[in-house]
Specification:
Four Helix Bundle (Hemerythrin (Met), subunit A); transmembrane helix
């Protein structure tokens, strides 16, 4: 009762916004959770409601002026921290005094605020006092940091003004300011306010932290495992190829091989040095070796494993291990490391973050929900009935236009022709802007002038369009739509861009190239997809803001930690620190950044610096970047009911079709020719006409006739009926007959009644919707029925019932009480009705197929030559469909027999024996192709010179020949229901077989580049795709991937559009400007002639003489005026290629540094 009272009191005080009662209620709720104190503290910190931090807020704190001053003080404090570095102050020395004044003012403001809150809430009297509230403790910590920072400024000023006291100020004192950037947390808290019950926050933190903790433990287990394995397998790798007589403790750049290579002793399995060098163990420090790639102890091995798991620079460590140890050890270690750590654990993190975000989204759905609905009046329509039928008519279309705008002008701007014409102009303008090619000669300036005047014409046309829409819709009607606002901004920016002085500066070129974004509006499907990705903007925009704030905070913290380090140019100014931390997020070259920082750091601080950057990288790559994936997936997530409908529609397209495939429907174009059977007349009776063979099959089988002889009254002559003319000649010595009379009619009716009673007793009248496809009323049906019953084991009804329950569970049969529902609720789907529809479609397809089989003799005949029921086809079918059955049923109980190694049995029974054989032979053939190599140049590892490789080639082709021959004889080639070539997989199988057969017969001994023989060898590389067609589970994955082609195409279109925008911008901004001389000392093209000495790369280690102008090895190279090796922006093709490389996070820092 006390807990209930406390809870109700908490709810009541929340409504009244009383801070005292709220704190009491929270303490009553949190009291039983003292064991989870950390969760409680974090929950209080996340409850961002500044009003709860004050017990009795005074009028001064309530004033908006003081709140605005405090927000402004937070920004000033952050700015002062970002510019307070020795290198930044060196550009403008008076900046130091400005920083001191700003820090003094900010500290005084925070001190005044603290005094007021202490006077209002008390110091330590109760839970809401200054030193006991969580947020107030955080504010006190920030105030303490500001006071220490101000004291440090005073000490520095004292050393400057009074140097005769002998006091010295060291630049590393600025480390004390490193926590100050967390002032941004307080600023965001003052800007963003939301209320959420504290117990709900605790629940979210508890669940999400538990999941993240579990996957972190999973990650740390593999990290420790591979770190220990690295120490045991590799250890210290200090052997290098050096010149004889090298001092191992003082190695110079001239002693190493070019490039520097690790080695192993002779016979150890690694790389062996050439004869003029020797493999020696060098005595190098960790700073000289560079930390990365070391397995000396558990700590350095753990650091190497983490850096390698980020997939950045791990190949260099692999090469070092290959040079030092046998190759199989390094291959096994690094392949498994990349698989488990880089792929598996990373995707597990993404999955956990996605699930956690989905749960948080449910809790914060009210905060993210769009409460206001924007009404687009210009496109508001209603359905009205006119003389021509039902039409969508705009609501008050005439009233939208203001005075002075004519009806004709409004109809023009609304017309489809006008909109299509403007879209065509947008496309034409985009193509025109992207068509410029920089040729690095005198013609560039002339063509730029021509392009300028054409751009002026385009800008004038788009401005006219904007004016027509303004006059047509009126200003209020025009500015109401977001698209029109975007077009107006583009018009203003592009108009400023064509101003001659501004055109050359390229400041407003963005407005010119962003016109192509208007094309997204032309495709409703693409527009809807883009809206789904970005959503209303609150979630994705909030995440972008969170990432930027995190980046700013960490950049400022790192700036204060490393700005004083000599020989380190990564953190001298805030832009440099920001770019370095951003580079770590993108993971491109981040290992080089960390290694450079560790090399310049004091040896005692190396572990802490490594932990700092590894922790930052772990947080931003596995959590923050996973949040982006989670937000986009959440935006693309469909409603559950909509997802069900989409899945049912996709299933309906495949399983509910009532028509046959096109390759079988071709038989409907030919005239019907059913197979007829001539009935020989019986003596003393009238002649009989020909009848369909399918009709006679109900009474007599071609392989085994049944003899029934009995005498009717007054007639003791046996009668011979329905004799097949073809079979008659083969069985002339044996007389087989069947009589029809009163007794046989009775027997047929009795058989029907008996089977009906048996079904009713077995299934309890629940199969009246199940179609009975057998012909039990005929002699053949009766014989088949009795044969099945006779061949069954004891208690056959129990087995039937088990089979029926299995079918019923999977929705393959419909019980009697499962008629389609008429009173469905909103959003409810009648699954049983859909199942009945699917069964009806299947029966319809079977009926059509049976009709074609009856009316067309060549239907379902492999190669139009093999008979439907021929012995050869039956043998081939048994070979093709032979399969291991993993499930064994007890004949007595009807239950499944439990087996050991059930998964192994299921794996063996996954596909047929023939397919298993082809999977193994295909894998063997692929393995043999791995041993083909052009080295050595004598050609002993090429297939046409190696008989062992030819054996695998012959085995594959012969096996595939047998497989295809058997499958074609069993199922047909193309015009049969289960043909070998019935989908894309069959076409690919046939293509692989034909190309392999041609290459095996041809087997050219000389292969030229881009020749037919080379293409045949390339086509052999498609053999692994056969495994996709043979294994059903892998084939299903490929099919599901192909089903998402529409979404993949939309993403591709969006990506290409954005790449085109930025590539066009790059062509106009930096096109033709990246070319330079390969000699960095030459800046003009006229002087880029002759030869110069170019330094060559030797080693990643820091040794004496490295990068020294006198000692570092050099070679003579000619001077060339050219673009960078990997990229340029001279035309749209190269620009898009460079941006595509940037999107892969590879090489973007090289483009940045140019």
């Amino acid at each position: 009762a006390s807990k209930a009272a406390a809870l109700s009191g908490a709810m009541l005080t929340r409504r009244k916004s009383s801070a005292i009662a709220a704190h009491q209620a929270v303490s009553a709720i949190v009291a039983p959770l003292k064991g989870r104190e950390s969760v409680t503290i974090l929950a209080e910190m996340l409850n961002i409601d500044p009003s709860t931090a004050r017990k009795r807020p005074s009028e001064i704190l309530k004033s908006g002026l003081l709140e605005d001053l405090l927000k402004f003080a937070c920004l000033l404090s952050m700015i002062s921290v970002c510019v307070n570095t020795p290198h930044t102050i060196s550009f403008f020395p008076p900046l130091f005094y400005i920083i001191v004044i700003i820090d003094a003012i900010v500290t005084i403001l925070f001190l005044i605020e603290a005094i007021i809150k202490i006077a209002t809430n008390g110091l330590i009297t109760d839970d809401g006092s200054y030193l006991r509230d969580r947020w107030l403790q955080f504010e006190f910590f920030l105030l303490f940091l500001h006071m220490i920072s101000l004291s440090l400024h005073c000490y520095e000023l004292f050393t400057i003004w009074f140097p005769h006291f002998g006091l010295h100020y060291h630049s590393w004192y600025c480390v004390i300011r490193s926590p100050r950037p967390f002032i941004m947390v307080r600023f965001i808290r003052s800007m963003v306010r939301f209320k959420l019950p504290k117990n709900r926050i605790q629940q979210i933190i508890k669940r999400s932290s538990q999941q993240i903790q579990n996957v972190t433990i999973f990650f740390m287990f593999f990290m420790a495992f591979y770190a220990i394995m690295g120490v045991q397998l590799f250890g210290r790798m200090d052997y290098h190829c050096v010149l004889p007589g090298t001092n191992v403790s003082n190695v110079t750049i001239a002693d190493l091989a070019i490039p520097d290579t690790m080695c192993s002793q002779k016979g150890a399995g690694g790389y062996e040095c050439p004869s003029n060098m020797e493999c020696v163990k060098l005595d190098m420090t960790a700073h000289a070796e560079g930390f990365y790639g070391m397995f000396n102890d558990f700590g350095t091995s753990l650091f190497t494993v983490y850096l390698a798991a980020s997939q950045e620079g791990w190949v260099y460590v692999l090469y070092d291990c290959l040079d030092t140890f046998p190759s199989y050890i390094a291959f096994f270690y690094f392949v498994t490391l990349i698989f488990f750590l880089a792929w598996l654990v990373k995707n597990v993190f993404i999955a956990v973050i996605t699930e956690t975000f989905a749960e948080i989204r449910v809790q914060f759905s009210e905060m993210w929900q769009t409460r206001e609905s924007s009404v687009d009046e210009s496109f508001s329509q209603k359905l009205e009935r006119t003389d021509d039928g039902w039409r969508l008519v705009a609501i008050d279309a005439d009233k939208i236009a203001v005075k002075g705008s004519t009806k004709l002008l409004q109809n023009i701007v609304r017309s489809t022709s006008f909109q299509i014409g403007m879209m065509f102009l947008v496309i034409l303008n985009a193509i025109f802007n992207a068509s410029f090619v920089h040729k690095h000669d005198g013609s560039d300036e002339t063509r730029k002038l021509i392009y300028y005047y054409i751009e002026v014409a385009f800008t004038l046309l788009f401005n006219i369009e904007c004016a027509l829409k303004i006059f047509g819709f009126g200003w209020n009607g025009y500015i109401r739509r977001g698209l029109h606002k975007f077009e107006l901004i583009l018009c203003i920016g592009s108009t400023l861009n064509v101003v001659k002085p501004l055109y050359s500066t390229n400041i407003f070129t963005y407005f010119q190239v962003f016109r192509i974004v208007r094309l997204i509006k032309a495709s409703p499907m693409l527009e809807d997809f883009v809206y789904k990705i970005f959503g209303p903007g609150k979630k994705l925009g909030g995440l972008v803001i969170f990432t930027m704030v995190l980046l700013v905070i960490t950049s400022a913290v790192s700036l204060q930690l490393f700005c004083y380090v000599p020989k380190l140019d990564k953190f001298r100014t805030f832009p440099q620190a920001f770019m370095s931390m951003f580079q770590i997020i993108t993971q491109e070259g981040w290992t080089d950044v960390v290694v450079e920082i560790l090399r310049t750091t004091n040896e005692s601080m190396v572990p802490f610096v490594a932990i700092y950057f590894v922790g930052y990288h772990l947080f931003v790559t596995l959590i923050v970047l996973s949040l982006f994936v989670a937000v986009i997936l959440d935006n693309l997530e469909m409603d559950e009911e909509l997802k069900k409908v989409k899945q049912l529609k996709a299933r309906e397209e495949t399983t509910m079709r009532t028509t046959l495939p096109w390759r079988l429907r071709i038989f409907e174009k030919f005239p019907t020719r059913p197979q007829m059977v001539e009935l020989r007349r019986v003596s003393s009776e009238f002649p009989l006409p020909k009848v369909r063979q399918s009709f006679t099959r109900q009474f007599a089988d071609a392989d085994e006739f049944t003899i029934i002889t009995y005498n009717q009254e007054g007639d003791d002559r046996p009668k011979l009926l329905f004799r097949n003319a073809v079979h008659l000649r083969a069985s002339r010595n044996t007389i087989k007959l069947r009589q029809i009379g009163h007794l046989s009619s009775k027997w047929t009716v009795a058989t029907l009644i008996e089977e009906s009673n048996r079904n009713r007793a077995l299934l309890s009248d629940s199969t009246q919707f199940i179609p009975q496809l057998g012909r039990s009323g005929t002699r053949m049906g009766a014989n088949a029925s009795f044969t099945r019953l006779r061949n069954r084991s004891i208690n056959p009804s129990m087995k039937l019932k088990a089979i029926y329950e299995h079918l019923k569970e999977n929705g393959d049969v419909r019980p009697a009480d499962s008629a389609p529902k008429n009173d469905l609720k909103q959003g409810e789907i009648d699954i049983k009705a859909l199942q009945q529809k699917r069964q009806h479609a299947e029966l319809t397809r079977n009926r059509i197929e049976e009709e074609i089989r009856e009316n067309h003799p060549f239907f379902d005949r492999p190669l139009f030559a093999v008979g439907r029921d021929s012995r050869l086809r039956r043998i081939c079918q048994e070979i093709v469909h032979a399969k291991y059955l993993p499930d064994k049923i007890d004949p007595i109980t009807g239950k499944e027999i439990q087996r050991r190694y059930k998964q192994l049995h299921s794996l063996v029974g996954l596909i047929t024996y023939l397919d298993w054989a082809m999977v193994l032979i295909t894998a063997l053939s692929c393995c043999s192709m791995l041993f083909e190599s052009p080295w050595p140049t004598t050609g002993e590892n090429l297939i046409f010179n190696n008989p062992y490789l030819q054996v695998c080639e012959y085995l594959f082709v012969v096996s595939m020949t047998f497989e295809l021959a058997v499958k074609i004889l069993a199922n047909g080639f193309f015009f049969t229901p289960n043909a070998v070539v019935h989908d894309l997989g069959g076409v690919m199988t046939l293509f692989i077989y034909i190309t392999s057969m041609i290459y095996l017969i041809w087997m050219p001994n000389h292969v030229e580049i881009n020749s037919l023989a080379q293409f045949m060898m390339i086509f052999r590389a498609m053999r692994p795709l056969r495994i996709y067609t043979l294994v059903p589970h892998i084939r299903r994955v490929v099919v599901e991937l192909c089903k998402g082609f529409k979404e993949i195409l939309l993403v591709t279109i969006l990506l290409v559009a954005l790449m085109f925008i930025f590539a066009s911008f790059g062509v106009q901004i930096v096109g033709g400007k990246l070319a330079a001389c390969n000699d960095p000392n030459v800046t003009k093209r006229e002087g880029c002639v002759g030869i110069f000495e170019q330094k060559i790369f030797v080693t990643r280690m820091e040794v004496y003489g490295k990068n020294d102008d006198e000692l570092h090895p050099k070679i003579w190279v000619p001077r060339v005026w050219t673009n960078p090796r990997n990229f340029n922006f001279d035309h749209i093709g190269n620009a898009m290629l460079a941006l595509f490389e940037t999107l892969s996070y590879k090489g973007w820092n090289v483009i940045r540094d140019i």
